[in-house]
Amino acid sequence: MAKGELLLEVRSEEIPARMLRPALAELEAGVFDGLASLGLAPRSIDGFFGPRRLCLVLKGSPRREADQRVQQVGPPASAAFDEDGQPTRAALGFAKRCGVAAEALQRVSLDKGEYVAVEVEKRGRPTTEILSELLPRVIAGLSWPKTMRWGSGQGPWIRPIHGIVALFEGEVVAFELFGIESGRSTCGHPVLSPEPFEVKGALDYRRKLERRSVEIDFEVRRERIAAGMRELARGLGGEVVEDPELLDKLTAICEIPGVVGGRFDEEFLALPREVLVTTLRDHQSAFSVEHKGGLAPAFLTVMDRLDDPAGLVQAGNEWVVAARLTDARFFYQEDRKLSLSEHAERLAKLTFHVKLGSYADKAQRIRQLVQILCEELQWGKDRKSAELATGLLKADLTTEMVKEFTSLQGIVGGIYAQADGAHEEVWQAIYDQYLPVTSSGSIPRGRVGMVCGIADRIDTLVGIFGLGLRPTGSRDPFGLRRAAQGLVKIVLEAELPIDLDLVAARAVLLYGDRFERTGDEVLNDLRPFLEDRVRHILGLEGFAYDEIEAGLAVGFGNLPDLRARVQALHGMRNDRGFLSVVLAAKRIANILKDTEEHSFRVELLKDDAERELYESSRDLRAEVEAAEAKGAYDECLTSISHFADVLERFFVEVLVMDEDRDLRQNRIALLQSIQRTLSRTARLTSMVVDRAELRKG
Length: 697
Hints:
By secondary structure, the protein is of the alpha+beta class. It has five domains: 6-64 and 126-211, no CATH class; 68-122, no CATH class; 218-335, no CATH class; 342-541, Hypothetical protein af1432 (Orthogonal Bundle); 562-696, Isoleucyl-tRNA Synthetase, Domain 1. It is 50% helix and 14% strand. It contains 27 helices and 20 strands. The strands form seven sheets. Strands 2-3-1-9-10 form a five-stranded antiparallel beta sheet. It has a four-stranded antiparallel beta sheet with strand order 15-17-18-16. Strand 19 (351-353) and strand 20 (357-358) form a beta hairpin. Helix 6 (218-235) crosses helix 7, helix 16 packs antiparallel against helix 17 and helix 23 (608-629) runs antiparallel to helix 25 (644-653). The longest helix is centred in the middle third of the chain and has 24 residues, at 312-335.
């Protein structure tokens, strides 16, 4: 047994899979922080979970708190001593309680006056004693989305607790929680190995669970399940259709990593692939099997046991899958009685938002935004297809299939549009409208899909922000962060030179008088929200925060242009001349702070250094303007880096704040002109550079 080892297991009825990992993380943090605050931090902490247990193994915690000297404060000095300076009964009683003689008492001055005090040795408590207070508090305090009570009112907690193992170096950490006393007894699977057994420590605990086929390590369990599925799929002559999220869910809902396969009638293969896969995943938590470029009439899932000798688990799963696929086929056949355009006619009765109108209204606004985007991007050839797609974009929201499987919205519409004979760019745009789903996901295929996806997201963002319903830190019921992130990613990845400010402003106008807020108020709220998503995505691409801020400071309407500016800054990051100019730009900004704008007069140039600065600044402005016109921001910054020596000479040889008023104002005017030139590509003062970094260059 490892020194300072704590084994904690909280065993309960089944906890929903999505709640297990957050609960374990909170449990780890609570126990670790509680011990660390008392100087008892462990060297390591490992967490494990299964559907019915949360486990922690900590190692290296001290056996007791360190001893310390503390100051005990007693009665006021006026009450502790009489007129002759002799200790009163109050002082003697205080000294006795502290275990010291009256002579050891000291006078101390506190905010509230003079008191008597004494320093005493406080013996550190045993770790087991501390844990007996800490563990029940942390366990009971876990944050759950929902809680319940059971028995005679025990709880609240996510599910009834059936047992608690708490051992420190093999010794029971005694406490009671919700009527359950901690101890060293646990059990395996509640059906296959329910008999209780005692454990001595973490290693003994793991070994005895393994003998009962229970694997508490999530990653080990996940790999065993994945390997078992690959083997079963090969036996069926195919391969598993990968789905990492589903694998995580299945790993969380079983603690014995057993895998079971099953088959269904081949006639169900006539369903669209996406419908078949989603039905198996959403209704039976089952993987599909790929076979010769299509799907095999088979599925794979877990069974929380290692074998199925009588085939009952397989039979039960097959029965449920057949029923679910029958339902899916019914929904599909009912939907196909109408064309997608006929489904779209029902959108007028489907509310987008009570204050923003129906989905038919939304479709009309998206259509107008698509027209604006095609015009700005000069994609005239794509306009007709894009307009056609917008009329069908949300039609599948009225279908039975999407009502049953909300995750298929968009996808179902694309499938139905394709079956109706729509052109490829139209059905793909409908199919891809919600892409990208994540910051690393794929964007829509083709121009039509891109403009539809952008228009849809801008309409949603402007509409919800127009009602003042901005997301909070914990709530985003309309998925606005996801919408904004998808919008930014499409524009950046496809390098679309559109002005988001302009398009958003046009979107505000399309809402007419539905808002009580002004257009400027809506846009002023929306702009920083979009900027945050830009920061996030550019940060994922590897750019530093100050590089991003420097680029954003000169505008973010054209995102590909912004990225080019940030990329140029990133490339010049270690150039000595550029770093010198950055520092000079900060110096110029400090000099010009709170100064009025002045007119420059060339005849007032006096010193050689300022004449050289003036001539060089004119050349620099011409070079920067020429390079900026063609989007060559690396050339802009290279020219700026060559300006370093001239600036340095000026600051060494010339006093800007000269006593002569005309000279002073003329030099300020020269620096104001230079500041404008230096700030064209990016706001250099946002860059974080110090002189030590400059010396390294």
